[in-house]
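General statements about sequence and structure are easier to judge against a single worked case. In the encoding step, the backbone of a single protein was reduced to a row of integers, each denoting a local shape. The record that follows shows the chain in one-letter code together with its fold in token form.
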Amino acid sequence: MPFPGCAARQLVKYSSPAELSGIPLNIQSAPAPLAEAPASPGFTRKFKAYVALTKPRVIELLLVTTLPTMIFAQRGFPDLGLILATMIGGALAAGSAGAFNCYIDRDMDRLMQRTENRPLVTGEVSPREALVFASLLGALSIAILWFGANPLAGWLGIGAIFFYVVIYTLILKRRTAQNIIWGGAAGCFPVLIAWAAVTNKVEWPAFILFMVIFLWTPPHYWPLSMKYSDDYNAAQVPMLGAIAGARLVSTQVVLYGWATVVCSLLLVPVAGAGWVYTVAAALSGGWFLYESHLLYNRAKAGEVSNKVAMRVFHGSISYLTVLFLALAFDPFIGGPVFA
């Protein structure tokens, strides 16, 4: 939130008897008062600004995929200390990447209505403070993953931060409409970290979960960019949902949606997923595809709206949440579909 500006003082000019009589007066107007410097934000406001830099809503979504993956890899609850180290380390790694992203994109954020209240735009946090904060979070996250889980989890944490900051933010985001496809791979690292934390290796089930999130990211994000197309165009960010027609975008959403659902079902034969996961993946996937096809049909008829696009966006979040909750419950209820 921007700092409140100093209220302008209104000078009231009283008429003298001479002025009332029509005699001109040579009176110089009073100089305008000097603007006061904005006061530094208090501790609470500063703390909230730092939290906002980490993009907590993104962290929430990443953590939704982390714990279920650990439970599925363990086929039960892992050690509490390992869970805490992985969750905290993963959250700090995501927060570090988010803060670096805010630092790099601060020029672009001020041009977009959706991001104009971010702390670096409002001045609540300086660029130097944000850079130091992001670096400290990153170092702390790697230390926690490395020593609290294992070195492999630490290396994957480094890879996640590097991919999001360098590959996506610095290289892809402003250069190609395919930015969210390849850059979205950074959001897939939490499942690799979670699996590695439990097993100290990365196996095929982890790669399948990686691909589920990788394929899910475009149909999740493109509908949002359709709604905020004016923002992305103003900032000259070539997001597909902003620069392409609704019919092309909705077609891509449907194709990636189908690929996501099919990939999610591969966990049944490859990893021995049970009936809980299988039924949840099929039903929630079917609903996600229904919403995606609805967007396509509306776009084909020239009736697409932000409301329909955002239904797909919010529906994609619900789909992924249901999928991973089922993954967490699966080891405790029933047995594998293919015994």
Notes: The CA atoms of residues 11 and 31 lie 10 Å apart. The first helix runs from residue 17 to 20. The two ends are 56 Å apart (CA to CA). The mean pLDDT is 87.
